[in-house]
Amino acid sequence: MAGSANLLFMDNESHIRLRAVVRDVIGQLEPLPHQVTTDIRAIVQKLHGRNDIDLVADFGRPVAAIVAAAVLAVEQELTAELLDQISGTAANLGVWIGDSAPAGSAMHKVVRFFLKATAIHDGGLDRLRRARKAGEITEDELLVTPVMLVHAAYENSTNFLAAAALQLSQSPSLAEQFVSGSRQAGAVREMVNQICPTRHVMRRATKPLDVAGTHIQEGECVAISIGPPNALAFGTGSHSCPGIKVALTEAEFALREIAPLLAASWRTVSVEEKNHFVFHGLSHALIRRDSSSGD
Questions:
Q1: Distance CA 69, CA 74 (A)
Q2: Per DSSP, what are the bridge partners of residue 198?
Q3: Residue 22, C-beta contacts closer than 8 angstroms, at least 6 positions apart
Q4: All domains of the chain, ordered by start, with CATH?
Q5: Interval 25-37 mean pLDDT
């Protein structure tokens, strides 16, 4: 939308300028740093021997939190309370469908956290602050971009990893393919398009047009479906997700780590989906090991 400081709602030269800075921030995680993969492996190791696993609370969230912390790279911890606030900023997008209660409080708390945070040298927040000093981004963009990045890294990854792990637990043969590596890379991309943790994007019409019998005026905002059956989980064109490589690498590594555990015999106890127009995910996904199976 015109005048927005959020990359997701920008077009033309402003979008190109800010996207280049965002790509520089994300690029520090290509490939995933050793400490990130070590921490992900440690999370999965803690699940071995467990008879009950909530694939959201015990796998999706902690893995996503590690990557989210690595993206911005600050000395302060991303606490559980802050992570809840980060998830809560998703309510801001409810205004697309007439929600009168956007996540102002959550947004302000996350903005304040990164405004006061101590940036680690050459990490994501440090790069954003240097870009501001160099005049590459505006003050408003410096405030908004960390929130956009940390939300994408945490919420989208949580939603996908939990749903994908649930699929592996329900299909031992698919889990075995991850263990063997026979279908891993292609399977992750297929699963992302199938699950599609982001179901809609917002775009602004740059000229009047008619779509499926509906007239859209120049400047009007439109929600576009990128979820099933369109299979455009990462968007397309100049507005495609700038973190595709990191997202796929993170998912491939995390799912490969947990696949041997999920290849055993598990049954689904309870699953609850989140209710959000844009973001598709699970509130919890509890699985239980069959009594006859071993670790």
A1: 7
A2: 279
A3: 7, 145, 149, 242
A4: 7-289 (1.10.630.10)
A5: 97
